[in-house]
């Protein structure tokens, strides 16, 4: 599949701190997951793609448009849906008012059509019956759904979602997965998350970032296979393993070299991710 | 629950044709609410019904128009622009009350000061010094991540950057000029002198916008306001006249500064956009 977003040699520094270090990646239609530890540069990358932050160097092409060019950046913004990591709202606005305000920012100027679109996106995230509630009265999960609703305005071709499942309960997360997988059928969705289960359940492609660089690009299955032959289950805590934890059935799952008496286990996306980043020794999870 | 009886065809036709009285219509409505079979027998246009429901939903859900947006609509501002400007943090009620209070305080101070024969018209100085700072202070609270909680969402939309900042800056400037201008006739002094805040206000506003292409609006407004206060004090001390910074010569200087800075702001407007590259590709 042709890539809809390409990034070449992207660099961003804050003082001496290099946040994006000659980053190169590409992805196309469908849902792409973006994994990485805190400080890996995920949010900076997403802000660069969402055109709210200018990189120090490198090139970005999204939907065939160059954000460096002012008119192309404006066109890209009109085809973009963005859910930032910490979306802010006017607390005294109602949900309808808030989404209507963002719709105005997205240049939906005809009031009747704009209101129809506002109702549509509120219904998509199951907040239609809360349209007249003030934002300050919402729970954290509802605010997250509100943030997702505004990102869906205007049926964007490119959706950039920065940790959208934070604060959602399990049922809402299932609904979110259903919604995002449906959106990914005909558009490009980039989903930054700490939840490897979301990546395994939703994404056709996964990118792992570490220290401002791409550590892995491939399918979730390929990320899991990074841990092939290195996942073990044993009845007792392994002594020589670098990473292990006690599972719900009372046995110990470990990554790395096989401890004596341990049986091999099928690797998961999380196993591959942990081994890829070479996290320090963990004792419990 | 489906009732045991159903509406006769003749009654359905009269109902659909709008030929029943109010009491009969209410009775038929009550029956239709409970009877699926009769509902199915009443002819209706799907599109008309959908449009009617949409109008009802819109009436229930749509936001009430804010007073400022209503005011702007009276002056012919398009609905979506009025709604956008009404959300400007620097045009919130609290801000407007604070500005009005500052102006009222300065007018009262001027009246008290001019009673002192030694102060004379110099009593107008607090008003004339404070008034030009109000528009830059408003711009400081009009746009940017530090003052607008929705800024990050806004920056990723076509309205992000220069369009938002300049629209809001104009709205803030006009509001400040209207409020200050309304207070000007109340000042105890000749009209030429009481309006001497206007050109410094324009110069400071355009300088704030010009500096905001490099620094954030709050930083720019704070730095220029401090520079303005410093310049006024220095000018007064050097000449021994507190109104020297508002002399005709000084006014010409403010006017010239505004004329130079306004085109500069226009030329550099892309810099208001956080997505605009700050480097030149080799």
Structural descriptors:
heterodimer, A: 285 residues, alpha/beta, Rossmann fold, 3 domains, 6-stranded mixed beta sheet, 4-stranded antiparallel beta sheet, 9 helices, 27% strand, disordered C terminus, B: 282 residues, mainly alpha, 65% helix
How would the blueprint of this fold be written?
The complex is a heterodimer of chains A (285) and B (282).
Chain A (H helix, E strand, L loop, with lengths): L2 E12 L2 E12 L1 E6 L6 H8 L7 E6 L7 H9 L1 E4 L11 H11 L5 H14 L15 H12 L6 E5 L7 H14 L4 E5 L3 H7 L2 E6 L2 E6 L1 H6 L5 E4 L8 E4 L5 E4 L7 E2 L4 H9 L8
Parallel strand pairs in A: 3-7, 3-8, 5-6, 6-7
Antiparallel strand pairs in A: 1-2, 1-4, 8-9, 10-12, 10-13, 11-12
Chain B lengths: L8 H8 L5 H13 L1 H6 L4 H16 L5 H8 L4 H8 L6 H22 L10 H6 L3 H7 L10 H5 L6 H22 L7 H4 L3 H14 L5 H23 L8 H20 L15
Give average pLDDT of chain B, whole number.
87
User: What would you give as the CATH superfamily of the largest domain in chain A?
Assistant: P-loop containing nucleotide triphosphate hydrolases
Proportion of strand residues of chain B: under 5%
Provide the CATH top-level class of the largest domain in chain A.
Alpha Beta
Q: How are the strands of the largest sheet of chain A arranged?
A: 5-6-7-3-8-9
The gross shape of chain A turns out to be globular
Number of DSSP helices of chain A?
9
Which class best fits the helix and strand makeup of chain B? mainly alpha
| Uncertain ranges of chain B | none
Largest sheet report of chain A: 6 strands, mixed
Shape summary of chain B: elongated
Protein name (chain B): Integral membrane protein
Transmembrane segments (chain B): 95-114, 120-144, 165-187, 193-211, 223-244, 250-267
Organism (chain B): Nonomuraea longicatena
Keywords (chain B): Membrane, Transcription, Transcription regulation, Transmembrane, Transmembrane helix
């Amino acid at each position: 599949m042709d890539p809809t977003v390409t990034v070449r040699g992207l660099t961003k520094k804050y003082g001496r701190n290099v946040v994006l270090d000659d980053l190169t990646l590409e992805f196309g239609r469908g849902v792409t997951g973006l994994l990485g530890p805190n400080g890996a540069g995920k949010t900076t990358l997403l802000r660069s793609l969402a055109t709210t932050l200018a990189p120090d160097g490198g090139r970005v092409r999204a939907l065939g448009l160059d954000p460096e060019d002012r008119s192309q950046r404006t066109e890209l913004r009109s085809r973009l849906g963005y859910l930032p990591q910490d979306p802010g709202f006017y607390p005294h606005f109602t949900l309808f008012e808030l989404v209507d305000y963002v719709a105005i920012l997205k240049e939906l100027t005809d009031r009747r059509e704009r209101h129809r679109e506002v109702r549509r996106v509120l219904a998509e995230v199951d907040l239609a019956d809360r349209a007249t509630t003030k934002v300050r009265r919402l729970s954290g999960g509802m605010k997250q759904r509100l943030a997702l609703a505004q990102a869906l305005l205007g049926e964007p071709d490119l959706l950039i979602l920065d940790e959208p499942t934070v604060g959602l309960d399990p049922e809402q997360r299932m609904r979110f997965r259903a919604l995002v997988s449906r959106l990914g059928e005909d558009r490009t969705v980039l989903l930054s998350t700490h939840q490897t289960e979301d990546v395994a359940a939703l994404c056709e492609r996964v990118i792992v970032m570490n220290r401002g660089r791409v550590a892995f690009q491939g399918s979730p299955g390929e990320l899991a296979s990074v841990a092939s032959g290195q996942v073990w289950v044993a009845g007792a805590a392994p002594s020589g393993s670098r990473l292990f934890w006690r599972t719900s059935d009372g046995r110990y799952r470990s990554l790395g070299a096989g401890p004596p008496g341990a049986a091999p286990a099928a690797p998961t996306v999380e196993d591959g991710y942990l081994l890829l980043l070479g996290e320090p020794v963990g004792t419990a999870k | 629950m489906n009732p045991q009886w159903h509406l006769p065809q003749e009654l359905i036709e009269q109902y659909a044709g709008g030929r029943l009285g109010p009491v009969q219509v209410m009775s038929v409505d009550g029956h239709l609410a409970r009877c699926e079979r009769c509902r199915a027998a009443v002819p209706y246009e799907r599109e008309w019904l959908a449009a009617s429901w949409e109008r009802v939903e819109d009436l229930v859900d749509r936001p009430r128009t804010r007073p400022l947006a209503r005011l702007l609509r009276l002056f012919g501002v398009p609905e979506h622009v009025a709604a956008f400007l009404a959300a400007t943090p620097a045009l919130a009620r609290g801000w407007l009350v604070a500005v009005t209070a500052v102006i009222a305080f300065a007018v009262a101070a001027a009246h008290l000061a001019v009673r002192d024969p030694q102060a004379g018209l110099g009593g107008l100085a607090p008003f004339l010094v404070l008034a030009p700072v109000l528009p830059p202070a408003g711009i400081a609270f009009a746009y940017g991540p530090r003052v607008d909680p929705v800024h990050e969402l806004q920056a990723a939309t076509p309205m992000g950057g220069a369009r938002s900042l300049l629209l809001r800056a104009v709205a803030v400037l006009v509001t400040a000029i209207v409020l200050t201008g309304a207070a000007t006739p109340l000042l105890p002094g000749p009209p030429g002198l009481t309006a001497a805040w206007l050109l410094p206000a324009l110069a400071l506003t355009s300088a704030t916008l010009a500096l905001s292409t490099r620094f954030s609006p709050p930083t720019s407004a704070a730095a220029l306001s401090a520079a303005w206060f410093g310049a006024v004090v220095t000018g007064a001390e050097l000449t021994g006249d507190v109104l020297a910074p508002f002399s005709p010569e000084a006014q010409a200087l403010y006017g010239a500064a505004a004329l130079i800075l306004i085109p500069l702001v226009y030329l550099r407007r892309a810099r208001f956009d956080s997505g605009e590259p700050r480097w030149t590709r080799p």
